[in-house]
Design a protein that fits this description.
The protein is an alpha+beta fold. About 40% of the residues lie in helices and about 25% in strands. The chain contains seven helices and seven strands. The strands form two sheets. It has a four-stranded antiparallel sheet. The chain has a three-stranded antiparallel sheet with strand order 4-6-5. α1 packs across α6 and α2 crosses α4. The radius of gyration is 20 Å and the shape is elongated. About 30% of the residues are buried. The mean pLDDT is about 90.
Length: about 200
């Protein structure tokens, strides 16, 4: 049996309930998927040219003067992640490509761009390049990860469990919170006073 076992259902469309050889595992589906995406993006960005996914229809985004200034000051920060963004007016940016694997058609590119611009404002160009890139990758991963209140099929749940098993530090999300917990069978038995 795989370390994280097999999914048997969801709890409130927020947690995956799985069973392995030791007992029951509860997985925070958003936090787990966020870690998987973060590590995938980090790996992709370590290559010379990260994989990009063109948008079928480019997305125009209205931005403030400050957001436009942030992009003009550090456009390479987003290009290096796999975005293709261009100016289309004094307060309009157009997203044409996004990093491959961060959401396809369910990705809200406009909202993600605004969050990334906020991260750029919070992390000036002279800041440590690695820390700034990790922050931007974390924003991308968080935004693209499945959310709570999202119903998954058993096949999708098991696919996420297998991805977690193949991902570094999959036991913690990007913010340091646990992605899963194990409640072993003896602990469950004790809850029901078995063996007394």
């Amino acid at each position: 049996m795989p370390p994280l076992g097999f999914a048997i259902g969801q709890l409130h469309d927020r947690y995956i309930v799985a069973q392995n050889a030791q007992g029951m595992i509860l997985i925070d589906q958003h936090a787990a998927h966020e870690r998987v995406l973060y590590e995938r993006l980090k790996s992709s960005c370590s290559l010379q040219a990260p994989a990009k996914q063109p948008l079928l229809i480019p997305v125009s985004v209205q931005v403030t003067d400050l957001e436009m200034a942030s992009w003009l000051e550090q456009p390479e920060s987003l290009t290096d992640l796999g975005f293709e963004i261009s100016a289309a007016g004094p307060n309009t940016l157009v997203v044409r490509q996004v990093p491959a694997g961060i959401g396809g058609n369910r990705l809200d590119s406009a909202k993600l761009l605004l969050e990334l611009l906020q991260s750029l404002q919070d992390s000036p160009a002279q800041a440590n390049l690695t820390a700034r890139q990790e922050r931007l990758l974390g924003t991308c991963a968080c935004h693209a990860a499945i959310r709570g209140q999202h119903s998954l099929s058993v096949t999708e749940m098991n696919a996420l469990l297998r991805q977690m098993e193949a991902t570094e530090r999959a036991d913690q999300c990007n913010h340091g919170r646990p992605t899963w917990i194990l409640v072993d069978l003896p602990a469950i038995d004790a809850l029901f006073l078995h063996g007394r």
